[in-house]
């Protein structure tokens, strides 16, 4: 049996999963399982996140001898076995794109224009191959940048991409719009505006264009974010330099 556990449900303040109450809490469920003779192997995905004393304490309740911690950006784990997979192998397997194109320009409107132009170019190329994939643009803005957020929203609105028609999405700590089903290959949204949410465990292979309007990100954050836009939507190459 495989059980998936959402760390944030257990480690966030005020959660009810660990509280004593009339209902069986999380720790009691573990104890019952152990008493029934079940044994656990723990796999911690995205282990660079929630690597805290509280999370470690919860793991101890499983009394496991086997813990597998997985991360593309491991840190702070002594004697970790780092499995290096050459980029060429991952490309050859068709899982990620063959190259990144870095644009050094810093004018917001120019970058957004180029991103939308590339999105339409990619969309047309997929349709030409009879593949219904709608490439997604990720627009990453700095924290505390309401003016920039407003400018980005206005620019997209002028191009006919709005929250109302479902072609624009936003994923901020206090705002979530048009996120349901956004990872589906043919989802209607063309662009999503984010700050940091995308870096952790988000799997949306149709995300193909990153407009980065923020600076001073640490290396782990940078690697995690770029990793999101390198995935191939169907885990294969198409024999087209544009799509691959």
Overview of the molecule:
The chain has about 240 residues and is of the alpha/beta class. It contains seven helices and seven strands, in the order ααβαβααβαββββα. The protein has helices at about 5-10, 25-35, 55-60, 85-90, 110-130, 145-160, 220-230, and strands spanning about 40-45, 65-70, 135-140, 170, 175, 190-195, 205-210. The strands form two sheets. A five-stranded mixed beta sheet has the order 5-4-6-3-7, with helices on both faces. A hairpin with a 2-residue loop joins strand 4 and strand 5 (about 175). The longest helix has 21 residues, at about 110-130. It is globular, with a radius of gyration of 21 Å. The mean pLDDT is about 85.
Fraction of residues in helix? 25-40%
Strand composition percent: 5-15%
Shape: globular
Average pLDDT, to the nearest integer?
A: 85
Computed Rg:
21 Å
Spatial separation of the terminal alpha carbons: 37 Å
Structural class: alpha/beta
Q: Largest beta sheet: what is the strand line-up?
A: 5-4-6-3-7
How many DSSP helices? 7
Q: Give the tally of β-strands.
A: 7
Uncertain stretches of 5 or more adjacent residues: none
| Major pleated sheet | 5 strands, mixed
């Amino acid at each position: 049996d495989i059980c998936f556990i959402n760390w944030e449900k257990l480690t966030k303040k005020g959660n009810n999963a660990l509280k004593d109450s009339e209902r069986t809490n999380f720790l009691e469920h573990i104890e019952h399982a152990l008493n029934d003779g079940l044994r656990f192997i723990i796999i911690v995905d995205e282990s660079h996140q929630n690597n805290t004393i509280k999370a470690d304490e919860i793991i101890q309740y499983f009394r496991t001898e086997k813990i597998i911690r997985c991360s593309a950006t491991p840190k702070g784990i002594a004697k970790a076995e780092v499995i290096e997979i050459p980029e060429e192998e991952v490309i050859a397997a068709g899982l990620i794109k063959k190259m990144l194109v870095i644009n050094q320009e810093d004018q917001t409107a120019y970058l957004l224009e180029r991103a939308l132009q590339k999105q339409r170019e990619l969309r047309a190329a997929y349709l030409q191959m009879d593949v219904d994939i709608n490439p997604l643009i990720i627009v990453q803005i700095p924290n505390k940048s309401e003016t920039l957020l407003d400018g980005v929203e206005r620019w997209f609105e002028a191009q006919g991409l709005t929250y109302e028609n479902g072609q624009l999405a936003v994923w901020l700590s206090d705002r979530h719009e048009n996120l349901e089903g956004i990872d589906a290959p043919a989802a209607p949204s063309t662009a999503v505006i984010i700050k940091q949410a995308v870096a952790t465990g988000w799997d949306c292979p149709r995300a193909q264009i990153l407009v980065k309007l923020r600076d001073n990100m640490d290396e782990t954050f940078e690697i995690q974010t770029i990793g999101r836009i390198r995935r191939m939507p169907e885990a294969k190459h198409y024999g087209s330099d544009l799509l691959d």
